[in-house]
Specification:
elongated, 5-stranded mixed sheet, 253 residues, single chain
């Protein structure tokens, strides 16, 4: 793996380029779980005019020897992540490390990208609603005995539950294959919740799903959400015109 001096040496040409606004380390190497197999995922934020000149050229550079993977983004593209509804456009920057910031614009943008406020309570309510809807679908699938549908639906239910657990604690849900590691960033009980998820994967029975649901509801109550207590009102709220935009943005269905 690269040591710090070698790492900086590989990137210093970008630090001195007038077209570069910033250099950011993202991916597993920006987290505590970096290991010998981790790549160094680097984003180079360049001015918009320069990006137009290079966008038809190679925008991703991979160096297998040094494990450097460099992606070029225009500042316009980078700044657009602030209002993106995709978790992947927010989560990497929460723990991302700014290696170079020409004029402070990168730091300011990352603060806004990392912030989780917009639509949060609405999204949590929608996600919980989708959880209980999938639970009812799984109940019907268990009656028909269709194994493939059962596995696919229960997997989707577990993914929804996982995302909701992060949202409840005001954290952006991570990429799926780093979920287990990111559970350690959550407040308390992450091991118990991981166990409940694995139980649903191993045995997608209503009994195990209800245990998972109880775990979710305990967390909702802990963080001040009580909408789950009245399922009829919840369904009515999600079906209202107010939630049309929220469903279009965040729905799994």
């Amino acid at each position: 793996m690269l040591n710090k001096s070698e790492f900086d040496k590989q990137l210093e040409k970008y630090y001195s380029d007038d077209n570069v606004f910033g250099v950011i380390l993202v991916g597993s190497s920006s987290h505590y779980y970096k290991d010998s197999n981790s790549d160094y995922d680097i984003e180079i934020i360049v001015n918009n005019e320069y990006y137009k000149q290079i966008k038809n050229k190679k925008l991703i550079i991979r160096d297998h020897k040094t494990k450097l993977e460099v992606l070029f983004l225009s500042f316009l593209n980078f700044e657009s992540k602030i209002n993106s509804v995709l978790d992947i456009n927010h989560w990497p920057y929460v723990k991302g490390k700014i290696l170079y910031d020409k004029n402070g614009s990168i730091s300011n943008a990352i603060k806004k990208i990392s912030k989780m406020e917009n639509d949060l309570s609405h999204r949590i309510k929608l996600t919980y609603f989708e959880f209980i809807m999938l639970k009812s679908k799984i109940r019907r699938i268990l009656d028909t005995g269709e194994e493939l549908n059962l596995r696919l639906t229960s997997s989707q239910l577990a993914i929804i539950a996982s995302k909701m657990f992060f949202l409840i604690q005001k954290q952006w849900p991570p990429i799926i294959y780093w979920t287990a590691q990111n559970f350690q960033y959550l407040v308390d009980e992450e091991q118990a919740f991981k166990y409940l998820l694995l139980q649903v994967f191993n045995d997608p029975s209503i009994k195990n799903i209800e245990k998972l649901q109880n775990g979710i509801e305990m967390q909702l109550q802990r963080f001040g959400y009580d909408f789950w207590c009245d399922k009829e009102t919840l369904i009515s709220d999600i079906s209202s015109d107010e939630y049309i935009c929220i469903r279009e943005k965040y729905s799994f269905f």
